[in-house]
Structure formats: structure tokens, C-alpha cells
Amino acid sequence: MRITCPLCGERDRREFYYKGAALVRPAEGADLDAWHEYVNLRENPAGPLDELWYHEMGCNSWLKVTRDTATHEILDVQLASEAGLGGET
Amino acid sequence: MRLPGKGLNQGAKPITFSFNGRHMMGLEGDTLAAALLANDVHLMGRSFKYHRPRGVLTAGSEEPNALVTTGTGGEQDPNVRATQQEIFEGLEARSQNCWPSVERDVMAVNDLAAPFFTAGFYYKTFMWPAAFWEKLYEPMIRNAAGLGALSGEADQDRYEKAFAFCDVLVIGSGPAGLMAALTAGRAGADVILCEEDSRMGGRLLAEREEIGGKPGHDWAAEALAELDAMDNVRLMTRTAVTGAYDQGTYGALERVSHHLPQRHSLKGSHLPRECFWRIAAKHAVLAAGAIERPVAFRNNDRPGIMMAGAVRAYLNRWGVAPGERVTLFANNDQAHRTARDLAEAGVHIAAVIDSRHEAPDGGPYQVIKGAQVCGSAGRQRVESITVRSIKGEEKIQTDCLAMSGGWNPSVHLTCHLNSRPVWKRDVLAFVPAEGAVPGMVTAGACNGTLSTAGALREGANAAAKVLEALGLNAAAADLPDAEDDPYRIAALWAVPGKGRAWLDFQNDVTVKDVKQAAVENFRSVEHMKRYTTQGMATDQGKNSNVAALAVLADATGRTIPETGTTTFRPPFVPVAIGAIGAGATDEGFKPQRFLTSHAESEARGAHQLEVGLWYRAAYYPKPGETSWRQSCDREVTLVRNAVGICDVSTLGKIDVQGADAGKLLDHLYTNTFSTLKVGKVRYGLMLREDGFVMDDGTTARLDENHYVMTTTTAAAGQVMAHMEFAAQVLHPDWDVRFTSVTEQWAQFAVAGPKSQELLNGLVAEDVNGETWPFMGCGEATVLGVKGRLFRISFSGEHAYEVAVPARYGGSLFRELLKRAEAMGGGAYGMEALNVLRIEKGLITHAEINGTVTAFDLGMQGMMSKKKDFLGKPMSTREGLMAEDRMRLVGLKPVGAAKEITAGAHLFTPGDPVERIYDQGYVTSAGYSPTLGHPIGLAFLKEGPDRLGETVRLVDHMRGVDTLCEVVSPVFFDPEGDRARG
Ligand SMILES: [Zn+2]
What we know:
The complex is a heterodimer of chains A (89) and B (981). Chain A has one domain (2-82): Folate-binding fold, CATH 3.30.2270.10. Helix content of chain A is 10%, strand content 37%. Chain A is built from 1 helix and 6 strands; from the N terminus they run E-E-E-H-E-E-E. Chain A has one helix at residues 32-40; strands spanning 2-5, 9-12, 17-21, 48-54, 62-68, 74-79. In chain A, the strands form 2 sheets. In chain A, strands 3-4-5-6 form a 4-stranded antiparallel β-sheet, with no helix packed on it. In chain A, strands 1-2 form a two-stranded antiparallel ribbon. Chain A is globular. Chain B is an alpha+beta fold and 981 residues long. Chain B folds into 7 domains: 1-154, Roll (Ubiquitin-like (UB roll)); 159-290 and 409-470, FAD/NAD(P)-binding domain (3-Layer(bba) Sandwich), CATH 3.50.50; 294-405, FAD/NAD(P)-binding domain (3-Layer(bba) Sandwich); 501-556; 593-650 and 744-837, 2-Layer Sandwich (Gyrase A, domain 2); 652-740, Alpha-Beta Plaits (2-Layer Sandwich); 883-980, Elongation Factor Tu (Ef-tu), domain 3. In chain B, strands 8, 9, 12, 13, 14, 15 and 28 form a 7-stranded mixed β-sheet that branches. A 6-stranded mixed β-sheet of chain B has the order 41-42-43-40-34-44. In chain B, helix 5 (175-186) runs parallel beside helix 9, helix 7 runs parallel beside helix 8 and helix 10 (511-519) crosses helix 11. Chain A binds chain B through residues 1-3, 10, 12-13, 17, 19, 25-26, 28, 30, 32, 35-36, 38-40, 52, 54, 56, 60-62, 71-74, 79-83, 85-87, 89, and chain B through 163, 245-249, 278, 280, 417, 438, 689-690, 721, 724-725, 728-732, 868, 873-874, 876-877. Bound molecules: zinc ion (ZN). Zinc ion binds at residues 5, 7-8, 55, 58-59, 61 of chain A.
């Protein structure tokens, strides 16, 4: 599998560390149900999924990768810093 | 038998090799199978289950029978396919799965017991009684299982792995592959052409059909010369593409030196045995050809019964006739070439048997149409066959039967990403589904196109398609004239009749076994496969899967497409684990990280401890010390009484800078760092987002916008990724940058009552309680080198950590030791460091084990109520603050056995020692020379409320059962005066 890092170009997947679904962090003061959902609950779709990958053996960027879980096709890659996952602070 | 003047190896050098101890001659370029056939050796091995005599069936990597062992000791290589192993001077090969010899094999009695070994035998027989399994059944099965054996010694061969990149990967070098490579290469594309054989050309080396008016192999040679001259084309022989993976990644195994004699003089060889390639290709052209399939009939497995295409390969490529009186059994026109070629070479054709009434007449030999071979006879080689036709049965003397049930396209790679092949009625075979692998185009026989002209045409078209996608201009295809015969075939899978008709030669699966599976309702092809073991041997059923499927379809009254097919998974050919993991053995698997103090520690005879990848000194034995405990006790004591030196550089060090550095640290730590004064250090606790403790450590503020964070050795990488996550994903707008500087700084603990005195001679600055108060930090000039000095303590003593750029680490360590020893101190290692911190109740990752909360550690007070931090919301969950959680306490022994062991569990005295009565567990333990007894840290239910209580400590692993008193985790100097003083 190969992922195109926006900074480094196309690289073998061995350079990356996989975290899981890319979710928006709840706002400060959100109730525990929202946190439970953020920390524990996942959709697990057979199809496109936004995921977080870390270019650990490259530029140390966290990436938001949109991958089809059924075909492993990678539909989009962007820097996580531009993906608005931090939520409100 | 070698036929003079025949074959593509005219003038090849003679080579001596041995098989089962017998010395023989072959020719350079021979495979072991070709050379053995040239020496009239047909019996090459014994089958897996019944130990039936077997000869070579094929001429390629799909070979199920002719598996041999080469080499001895650490070089022993089992299950080598004789159809692939090239001979070289001095090659020693031997048969396997037989004893005492391949001719007289004791285990052949299994063949007589065959009625007991039918499908599902293992499942039915070894069910009960359960007690028999471990003692009788399993050893028995293990003893009988497997073909070749490993030597049991470490593999001494060297393997390599490599990456390659190209525009077009062409897989297979037959007419389709060569034409694709030529078309792509001429257009300027970056091409890699992989061929698993030692010589490129594919079927063109085995057939006599012409291309462009010249022999096919001559056309191939010219094409290869042209490709070889192109800088943008890379030709890789002996390289099998083993798997197709996502985004155009392919695995390939190159057999680098299996064919070279040097390999056997290990030390002298610079070549690896194999190289595992990972090829990233923008596009691929699969031109993998097809594999001829046998026909199942009674005793179709005798040596001398071979595939018709393989017979042509041995004849036309290697000049070897596999028999003197050859018969042919086929259901298609193409197979008749075998009789034609042999007859032209002067070999007697006893008969051609074709199952079709409309079979073609051929040359000067008898063609029996509408007939079937229904049996064979002979002991260690076929002597006769029985032919059944409307006229009845007749026996024909023959020493070689060439058979062909048609061809199965090599669709394997197209299935690796989950696509299933589709049934193509006109060729009676599965062909690749459209778009099976993104970026891959299929061409030629693997696509179900079985004529030479068709292969050339599809090869050119496939390349043109790829070139268009690459934006390159393909020149108009210049296709040479070639054979374009229609492929006439009629279905013939299994000849009806009694006896055992073999499908899977390697796993000894018969037509009857498949029918039995169907009778017992294993009707799904996947169930049948597992029940009978069909296709589960090292050849993965390359020859037999489709015929087995056809038999199952027939037995269950379904069509073949209705019955479906099993899928193929990587690898296409067996790959040694050594090749996949090349480079990842010993230090390659686990790199060693050495401290700047390593050489000095070694010189002092320190015992090393592996901490992750780091090597740290465990203790420094002095003359006369006979156990680690003596050294450890002395080192603890010298820290408590004088001054000790310990290398602490393995702790993660992260340099954090920027206007929002404090803000980021506030977000990461439970406590506040933005309010920390410049020149001060603070201890911090980090949580995971789920509220559990992740790591701890100290962070120093060197300047307004400059901090240095330390992490534990164990979690350095994890904390770095966590920080990057917080900064990039959660707060990309904050002005903060950080980087790991763990390797850039050497850092040493200088701990003990004389530490200040030692440092005052070492650093230019005046070190006192004013300049470096407890938890103070600042730049210091260490023997003229700009360094840093932190007044922090992990021992409970008045202590410092002094840091210098790593290049000065070795000399500073020696200097520190010299000065410490002059003051009655010295070096201390990990063992003493551990005892010192347990005496103070300080935690490590033995305590931060992923299940503990700040509350469990008694650190709930460190969780700021004024700010948000990572993990805060989840840490407030009810259960994470419950009083009855297992919480940190100290233990000291009161029972008869004065022993505390880490990992032991705690019980209330009087309770049964059972899991549900478990009260907690010991995380760290050691002998405290300061207190004169063992001490331990533990997590105990309601722990802090049970001080003074007695608990029972049980360690089944080490046989310890004793009583302990629950005490405060801080055993020594609870007020902390020594560190602050
Ligand atoms: Zn990158």
C-alpha cells in the first residue's frame, strides 16, 4: 500500500503509523456522552472512511487520509493541520 | 535420454552433479529435472500421505512431485522444485519423504492402508478420547507430516530486500510479455520485465512454432537483445512476482544464487541467496501464461506420466526425450504437438489417445479417437496404460505418457486483491475479471488467449493501453506473423472407473475424496478444500484446483461457475521467511542504542541491561563482589552516603519553543507549566484522551518561550507522536515547534549528599542553594563546555542532572566518576537506581501500566481544575475515581519469608487464594539496604485507607506465600528534606 504525503510525496505504507478514524474533538465542556463517542465509538463502514495516519518515518506529519476500506483505494490525503479536527477551544 | 542435435543448449558445458549420492552428468542450463530425465531417472520422490513413487510432472514452478532437498546443516534447503533448480558443478540433491531410500520406502505401507485415509480422516479419527490427543495423535501426525525437513540449525544464508520503481511492470516473458515490454520500452516508458525462469522466452523456448518466419526462440532472443540495449528497461530473470498489493505494489522473489556453486562455500560468496523485491509500479502487464492441467484417471500418478507441454519443453529446450515409447492422452488439438515434435525427433509414438471423436489426425502414428486412458501399470515407472474405447479396453506398452486436459490461465495475481476469476466457456477455464487489480492489464495465455499470434497482439495492446494512461505515444504495433490456431477443446476432467484417480498430487487427493466430501455435504468449494486438503500443499493446487472443482460440480449437480472457485492468495511461489524478513535478524531486527558512557561502563565490567533498544549499565561489580545484590547494595549506599553517577541520557528529551509553548504544555500535562518561572523545573503527569495515565517526567523552562521536556525512556516515541497530534491535529494555529533532542544531549545524574561539592569543582558557576535551588535549572559551563544543570532528584537525595552535547558525554562521564570516587562515591547502575526510587515511592512504567489513573497513584491533586487538558473529561468518569480502585501503596514483609516479588498478588488473610478475592498486585520490588529489608510498591484495593493492615502476598510463579504490612509508598525521608536541603 502506498500513501501520498502532501509534503514528502508517494511513500510505502511502512513509513506510516495508523491511528484510526479522523474525528472532530468535542468542545471543552461537552458532556461525557460526546467524549465517550469520540474516544470509544467507531462507525466501521465498508467504504470511504476518514482516517488519521502519522508519517512517523518521514516528516512527522499527521495526515487525514480518506480510504475506501473495502478496496483500500485512497481517495484523498491532506495535512491533518488543515482538516479542522481540533474542534472548538 | 538426451537426443543429439536437439534442444537450445547446443555446445553447453557438461556439468557433474549428484542425486541421492549417485554422480551424473548434465549440461549447463539444465534444470535438475531435465538433467535427471536425461539420465533416465524418473523416480524423484515420494508423495506426502501415501508415499507413492512419483516422478516429475511439469517443467515449471507449479511442480507438485519432484521436490528435493539440497545442502546440509544450516544450508539445508527442503522442498526445492527440481523443475526450477539449475544444476551446477558439485550440486548435491536428494529425494525427501522416503526412508531408507526413494526406491525402498518403508512408509509406503501407508498406501496399502489407503482405505482408512480418505477425506476427513483426521477429523474423524483423532476426535477422541481427548487424552490421546497430546500423547499419541499429535506426535504421530507431526512425525508423518511435511515433505522436506529443516535441519534444525540456524539458516546461515544471507538474504536481501530491495525496492524498485517503474512505469510498467511486465510479469512474464513469453510472447505476450516480450511484445508488451518491447512496445512500452520503445515508447520510452520505464519498464521492469520479470521472469521466474532462468531464461526469458516463456513457451517460445518449449515450442517449435515460428514467429516472423523464424523459430520462436530466435525471435525471443532478438527481442531480448533489443530490450537489453534500452536504458529504460530492466530485465530480471529468476524473479517470480509473488503478490499484487495495493496502489501498484508488487512483491517479487529473485533467486540470486541458488544456481551458483559459490553459494556452497559460504564465506567466499558475496551474493545473497535470495532477494525479496517490493516493486512500486504505476502500471502492470500480467503475461503470466497458463498451466497445463492433468486428467484424473486410475493411477495417473506413476513416474513417467507427465504433462504434454512439459514433455515438449524437455524435448525442444533441453533436447531430452522422457521416454522411448511415448503415448499421448489429450482432449485438445494443441497437445498433439507433443506427438508431432517427438516423432520428428525420432522418438517412437506408441499411440495418441484423444477423448474427442473429432480429434485431428497427425503424423506417422496411430490416433485413437473418442477414447480414454483408464489406468496405468508399472512399479516405479509406468510400463503400460489401459485405453478404453467403444471397442473395449486395450493395453498399450509405454514408458512415458504425455497428458493434457487443457490449460488453466495463471490468474493468481489477479485474485490477490479479492477479485474472483470468471468462467470462460470456449476455453473451459477461469480467466481474470475485468479490472481485477487497479493498474493491471492482462495479456496472452493468462487471459485465456492461447495462440501465439493472440499473445503477441494482446501484449502490444496491453502496452498501448498503459502508455496512453502514462501519456506516452505508442508506435503502431508491428506484429510479426505467428501461429494462430484455434484452441479446440472438449471437457474432460476425470475418467470414470474404479481405483484412485489423482487430482492433487502433492497432497494425495483423489476424485473419490472430493466426491466423499460432497456426500458428507461439504458442498462449498471452500469446505471441500479444507475437508480434503485439496490445493493446500506448497503448490497451492496450481495443477489441480480447477479439475477438483469440476469434479465437485459434477458430484453436486451444479455447473462450474455455479460451484465457484477458491481464491488465490500471495505468494505465487513459496517464499522463505528469511527473504521476506531480510536484514531483520539480530541487530537488524533490534538495533542497539549505546550511550556515550557505554565504552567506559564496559571497561568497568558493567553488566548491561536492555531497556527498549538501549543498553544501560545494570551494576558495576567491584572485585570480591559475587552477586548483583552485593554491587547494587553498595551502589545504593554510596548514593545515600556520598555521591553517585548514573547515565540518564535514555530519557526522552523534547525541545519545545514558541510563544505558545507553555500553552501546549498546559494542554498536554494535567498540571500547569505556563506559570512555571524561567529557571525552574516541574514534575508533570500526562493522560491519554481516555483519562488513564500515559507518562510522567520533568519539564524545565529555560527561557520565556523555551522548555525542555523529559519523558520516560519507555514512552519517548509515544509521547512525541502524542505531542505532534496535539499540536498538528488539535491546535494547528498555536505558535509552537518542538523536536526530539534525546540523542543530542548526554545527561548524567549526580546524586548524593556530596553532589553539590562535586559540581562546584566541575562547573564554572557557583553552585549553591541560591543559584540552583531545589527544582532549579540553568545553563552551566562544564569544564569549558556550554551545558545545562538541573537540580532534580529521582533518588530522594540532594541531586543534579548535568547535560552536555553528546560528543562530550564519554569524557564527562569519566571525569564525573574520577571525582566521585575521590569523594567515596562512584558509578551506580539501573538496579541501584530502581531501589533508590522505590525507597522514595517514585513511579516508572512498572506502575504506569496503562490501567492506572492519577487517582490510583495518589496524584489527583495534580489535575488542574482551572484548565482543560488532554484526558481531563474522561478522567472524571465515576469509575476512575472510585475509592475501591486498586491504589498505590508500599509493602514491607512481616511474614516468615522476608520476600516481596513483582507480579505477586495480594489477598486478605483468611480469604481463599482465588481470582475473585484478588486485592491487588505488586508492581516493583527490591531489597533496601538503607532500611535493611525488602520493600515493594503495589496497587491495593482502597490501599491508602489500609495502612498498617496485613495482607497475604502470593506468587505462584516463584513459590512465594508470605505476609506483608501495608505502608506508605514513601519509605525513606518522607518529608523530602534530603532532596531539598
Ligand atoms: Zn511526509
